[in-house]
Specification:
Blueprint: H1 12-18, H2 24-29, H3 40-54, H4 59-67, H5 70-89, E1 98-99, E2 102-103, H6 107-123, E3 132-141, E4 145-154, E5 165-167, E6 170-172, H7 174-177, H8 184-188, H9 195-208, H10 213-224, E7 229-236, E8 242-257, E9 260-272, E10 279-286, E11 294-304
Antiparallel strand pairs: 1-2, 3-4, 3-11, 5-6, 7-8, 8-9, 9-10, 10-11
Helix pairs in contact: 3-5, 3-6, 6-10, 9-10
């Protein structure tokens, strides 16, 4: 009979087999380690998804693999080792892994994991009962060049600007945002059904709205389930701040005359701070051009006591 542990667990032989990878001994003797920083587990899940993907391979692929058995085994070992190391170190890493030309997980699936992870980060942010919301943003576009705006939004009345954010066919004020459901299914039903319009409205709200932590978390979860968003990975924004980028490719058209439409493709990239869930930057680029047509960099977004100075009523709303 195979020897079992006194609690009915796996045998010593099974334990030895499970822990047969580089670094296992160090993990066993390491003792307690701090919990991973936001995103470490999601990154590890994206990495080990490669092994799960292989289980769905076709018979022809499996036969090919048998002829080169040593190569896939080494790839699986590298992925497993990297995943364990990421969790043990508590590192934040969101790469779109490419192992011998074969991704560990699709970019869209990895984006979903990252955005779902950001929902957890957003939910843990402190709530605010401030009467004003300060937004300082730097814009840069081909028409106006680089400019910086500071805007104070008012919760209700008083000095400052009352702004509205799109939700479906409605434009909602700050107090109305507080009345939105925070259940993701109920909230998603209020937004457009097509993925492009839905993601656009949600991102507008995530950019600078005073949405509560629970509402922001629900918005991130809806984005996580929205197709067409790809994970780019760790980047730095134009100010050198580290973040994680996701990107959407969209089809756009403009008319040059009656019956004469020109179609082109654009790429919208959003850089997110994985520690706070705040959006750092958005760049709008026409595919094939090296310079972004528009850039919005959020320098400060958060609660404020009251508007001060001439900047209280300046706005940098996007033209959409």
């Amino acid at each position: 009979m195979t020897e079992r542990t006194e609690h009915g667990g796996a045998s010593r032989a099974e334990h030895a087999d499970l822990l047969d990878f580089p670094g296992a001994a160090q993990l066993i003797t390491a003792g307690d380690v701090p919990p991973p920083r936001p995103g470490a587990v999601a990154a590890a899940q994206a990495a080990v998804a490669f092994a799960a993907q292989e289980a769905r391979e076709t018979r022809e692929t499996r036969e090919t693999r048998e002829r080169t058995r040593s190569v896939p085994r080494r790839r699986r070992l590298l992925v497993a080792t990297a995943a364990v190391a990421a969790i043990a170190a508590g590192a934040v890493a969101y790469p779109v892994l490419d192992l011998g030309g074969k991704p560990a997980a699709t970019a869209s699936a990895s984006a979903g994991r990252f955005l779902d992870d950001m929902a957890g980060v957003a939910a843990e942010a402190p709530a605010s009962d401030a009467q004003y919301w300060k937004v300082r943003v730097e814009t840069d576009n081909q028409d106006d060049g680089k400019r910086t705006f500071t805007t104070y939004y008012a919760r209700s009345g008083g000095p400052g600007e009352v702004k509205k954010w799109p939700v479906g066919e409605e434009w909602l004020t700050w107090p109305q945002l507080d009345e939105l459901p925070t259940d993701e299914k109920a909230l998603a039903a209020l937004f457009p059904k097509d993925a492009e319009s839905r993601s656009e409205q949600i991102l507008i709200m995530l950019e600078d709205s005073p949405a509560s932590p629970r509402l922001r978390a629900a918005l991130f979860r809806i984005l996580a389930d929205t197709p067409g968003i790809e994970l780019i990975g760790e980047v730095k924004d134009s100010k050198g701040r580290p973040g994680v980028a996701v990107e959407m490719t969209r089809e756009a058209r403009y008319s040059t005359g009656p019956g004469e439409d020109v179609t082109y493709w654009t790429k919208d990239r959003y850089v997110v701070d994985p520690g706070t869930g705040l959006l750092l930057e958005n760049t709008h680029r026409i595919r094939g051009q090296s310079t972004p047509a528009d850039r919005y960099t959020w320098l400060e977004v958060g609660p404020a006591d009251k508007p001060t100075g001439k900047s209280a009523n300046k706005s940098a709303d996007k033209k959409r």
